[in-house]
Amino acid sequence: MCDLLPASQPVEKIGKMKKLRRTLSESFRSIAFKKDDGGFDEICVTKMSTRSCQGSDSVIKPLDTIPEDKKVRVQRTQSGFDPFEKPASQVKRVHSENNACINAKSSSSGKESPKLRRHSSPSSPTSPKFGKADSYEKLEKLGEGSYATVYKGKSKVNGKLVALKVIRLQEEEGTPFTAIREASLLKGLKHANIVLLHDIIHTKETLTLVFEYVHTDLCQYMDRHPGGLHPDNVKLFLYQLLRGLSYIHQRYILHRDLKPQNLLISDTGELKLADFGLARAKSVPSHTYSNEVVTLWYRPPDVLLGSTDYSTCLDMWGVGCIFIEMIQGVAAFPGMKDIQDQLERIFLVLGTPSEDTWPGVNSLPHFKHDRFTVYSAKKLRQAWNKLGYVDHAEELASRFLQCFPKNRLSAQAALNHEYFSHLPPRLWELQDMSSIFTVPNVKLQTECGDSIQVCSRRNSHGKASSGSKH
């Protein structure tokens, strides 16, 4: 069964628009920087007080605390600005305040703080530092969207390649709430199968998120190897996808935008979840969410029919679609017209739902008996024949592609499915930050006479809309 997230204490309602503006602005204003052991700055979101100089471990409240009447509808192709956010000119970084606090503490103790030494320049005051706009060199533009441009870049501090997601700010609009959400979520996610946020740079004109550079994405990788991927590679990619999803689902985070373009593939074959602009921290199951999420081909039928009350089951439908696409070489449900066409394609394979097969379907806003042709369910291999060539693949895919959301297999349960039984047992013992390729004999197979190193070219950073890659 798909994971259901436990309920927490009811969130205090925010009644006034003024308080909402203050909540979002203060959340973003509180982003400070703390350099990690790997040399890059790690986002550290705290509530700083310039009077007491006390750092708190409290984090930004999940954005699902915003009342529904004040939520901005999330568009699929561009980054929406938050009309309740203060102007960008009023959003100030507190990096200097953080250092001032550290300095005050070290002065009182008579010793230099280790944190202060870590933020100090190793040489002269003009040496490149993390958190500065001139700390990174732009090498080439990978893509541009309505509100963001993504560049391949290089750190002047340690020479590492990075991806620079530059979000343009407008004085009258303020900071896009998707950027606040993405930064606040990613700062706490440390996993080998989730893209790493290194640094953040905020100026009056732009907000730049600095991510690890990943060479390509699953969409481009499949385009370079048409007709379906090597079955062993499908298994390794799917295992890594489920591993990353299990990690965020256990932290009550929904990705909400799973598709091949948002799954980055490194030159060693490591898969990383990216683009958390639409992700949500779901703390109260009774809250509703915009149904304008997930690219149409990977959108589950419950959302297509107007449901806004969903959980981790939402992401698991996308997993099933991606799984089939990797094996078969074509999208599972490539709707060409509209939502009606998309649903017809789903029902043609899985059967038209009824109250017997899907309790509560009649209460969904867009479900009408006379709108859909009545189809009987088929075996998945009748629609996608290559599922029959791989042991247990059809059964696993059928556990993901369930119209009734609560029947979908969870990410954690899927990792223990018999489909993965031939993988080395050590994979299930890895630490979060350990790659599966650290396990002996785990490696990608050559695809169509070519290796992934040759196949890798440009990454999915090129799709730099609100859902630009990292």
What do you see in this structure?
With 470 residues, this protein is an alpha+beta fold. The protein has two domains: 19-212, 2-Layer Sandwich (Phosphorylase Kinase, domain 1); 217-459, Transferase(Phosphotransferase), domain 1 (Orthogonal Bundle), CATH 1.10.510. The protein is built from 13 helices and twelve strands. It is globular and about 65 Å long.
What is the total tally of β strands? 12
The pLDDT mean sits at 74
Assigned CATH class of the largest domain: Mainly Alpha
Task: Tell me the overall shape.
Answer: globular
* Low-confidence sequence ranges: 6-14, 31-125, 283-287, 451-469
Number of domains: 2
Distance between the termini: 31 Å
In what order do the strands lie side by side in the largest sheet?
3-4-5-7-6
- Round the Cα radius of gyration to an integer and report it: 23 Å
Largest sheet descriptor: 5 strands, antiparallel
CATH architecture of the largest domain: Orthogonal Bundle
Structural class: alpha+beta
What share of residues is helical?
Answer: 25-40%
Order of helices and strands: HEEHHEEEHEEEHHEEEEHHHHHHH
